[in-house]
Structures are given as structure tokens and as C-alpha cells.
Design brief:
2 helices
Length: 274
């Protein structure tokens, strides 16, 4: 008796899900449904036969003992033009590729030859319907260009390399022509070799250390020694760095008096806060 009641309840739930929004397609499999998974709301691509769509939709899985049916709202999606559905692949919820092209949010971006995702970071990504979501933003390349999201970086894709990427974005990168801050501003005319660079970061500054030089963002710290250079990561001394000879405040060497006055003041402040 209990089993029959359960079947009827599940069947009625299936009818409810069919009718709560008339734009949704709905499939009820036989008289006895299995569990209905929670709705999955997302942006992304959906392949239907020879067509590919992009947009915001809700995926609903109806699970039967033998089959799983995915039901989605196709009416709110944008149809991709001239796409090859047979070779299409959703790379992530913004990018898709087929044998010919790269698509960004359903819009043709570039040729797919040589397509590669190089890195990612967290960012507020705006969709074409005006909605913003905090998700992964991607650095990609093909045989001709390097992209940071939708922005083309004027760097050589064949020799492009990320030197440092944090959770806010691209910090240092290089190609055969040199080293660049955020992929745009050149700070060195020659690329660095593997094993001859490192990076340091706190909540105030980012540093690139090469074999002979130290940079704070784009600023060359002229007298800094890369081998002994280090930074502070506590909240009081974030603007300070040091090496075996000197202290630096925001990339500028401090005199002995400046150093003494600074630490006297800030150690006192730190003790007061503690």
C-alpha cells in the first residue's frame, strides 16, 4: 500500500514540474518515476541534434530505474550560427569550440586551430543578458592570438608563457620579445629562462625576481639583490621589503634614519593594536 502511494506522489511531482513553467519541455517516463534531482541552473552550451545553443537555462534530471533524461529550457537560449555540432565541445561555461572556431558565450571569437586554455583566475564575468557572476575567467590562445577573457594580448602565441598568475588575474607573462606586466606593459626586453625567476606577493604588492633583477609590479628596484630579497606578510609591514644590504619601502631604498623612524613608529602601532 505504501509503495503505491509513493508512486502516485512521485508521478504528481512529475506533473507539477511539467506545468510550473510552460516554456519547459517535460518528459515523463512510464508510470513509475525514480527520484527527480534538484534543478541545475547555469550558463553554458547545449547540443540538440545538429544545433548548438548558448545561454541561461535550467537542467532538470529525471532519473528512472533504467534511464536518465535531461530536460532543459531551450527557448531562452541563443542558437549558434554556422556551428559544426558534430565536433562541438563545451570547454567551460563561456568557451566552446568546434573544428573551425572558438565561441565565447555563443558568439564566434576566433579560429580554433591551436586552441588551448593556459590558465584561469576568479573574476566577475558579465554575461550578454547583463547578469554578472563570480566565476573562472580564462587565458586562452590559438595559433594566432592570446586572449585574457575577451581581450587580445599583443603577444606571440607560440612563445607565450605565464610567469605568475594569482587569483585576481595575470600578473607576469612573457614571449620571445620580453617580459610583460599583466601581458601588456613590457618590463624586460628579453625573456627569462626556466628556473631563473620566482615571485613574491602579499596583499599590497607583487614582486618578480629574476637572476639579476627585482621588480615590484612594473618598478625595477635597482639595488635589490634577488638571492636574498624577501618581503613581510603581516598587516603592518606590507609595504616593506629587504635584502642582505637594504630595506625598501614601496620599491624605494630607505635610508638608515627612514628605516629607524619607520620601524619605531610601526612597531609601537603594532604593539598598541595587539
Amino acid at each position: 500500500m505504501g509503495g503505491e502511494i509513493k508512486k502516485k506522489i512521485i508521478f504528481l511531482l512529475g506533473i507539477f514540474f511539467c506545468n510550473f513553467n510552460s516554456t519547459f519541455a517535460c518528459i515523463v517516463i512510464g508510470e513509475e518515476l525514480g527520484s527527480i534531482n534538484p534543478n541545475r541552473e547555469r550558463y553554458g552550451y547545449k547540443i540538440s541534434g545538429e544545433e548548438v545553443f548558448y545561454g541561461h537555462f535550467i537542467e532538470r534530471k529525471i532519473v528512472n530505474k533504467k534511464t536518465v533524461t535531461v530536460v532543459a529550457d531551450f527557448q531562452n537560449l541563443r542558437k549558434l550560427e554556422n556551428v559544426n555540432a558534430e565536433t562541438f565541445k563545451e570547454e567551460n561555461q563561456c568557451y566552446g569550440t568546434d573544428k573551425n572556431y572558438i565561441y565565447y558565450q555563443g558568439i564566434k571569437l576566433d579560429k580554433s586551430s591551436g586552441f588551448e586554455i593556459i590558465g584561469s583566475y576568479n573574476a566577475n564575468v558579465e554575461y550578454r543578458d547583463g547578469t554578472t557572476e563570480y566565476i573562472k575567467n580564462y587565458i586562452i590562445k590559438n595559433s594566432e592570438h592570446v586572449y585574457d577573457g575577451l581581450e587580445i594580448l599583443l603577444l606571440d602565441p607560440k612563445t607565450f608563457k605565464i610567469l605568475y598568475l594569482n587569483n585576481k588575474g595575470l600578473v607576469y607573462a612573457q614571449d620571445k620579445t620580453g617580459v610583460y606586466y599583466k601581458g601588456k606593459e613590457k618590463i624586460m626586453d628579453t625573456p627569462v629562462k626556466n628556473g631563473e625567476y620566482s615571485s613574491l606577493e602579499n596583499s599590497r604588492h607583487v614582486y618578480l625576481l629574476t637572476k639579476y633583477r627585482v621588480f615590484m609590479e612594473t618598478v625595477l628596484i635597482k639595488e635589490a639583490d634577488p638571492e636574498t630579497f624577501k618581503i613581510f606578510d603581516n598587516d603592518v609591514f606590507l609595504e616593506i621589503a629587504e635584502d642582505k644590504k637594504n630595506f625598501y619601502k614601496n620599491g624605494v631604498k630607505m635610508s638608515k634614519k627612514e628605516r629607524e623612524d619607520y620601524f619605531k613608529l610601526n612597531v609601537k602601532k603594532e604593539n598598541q593594536e595587539f
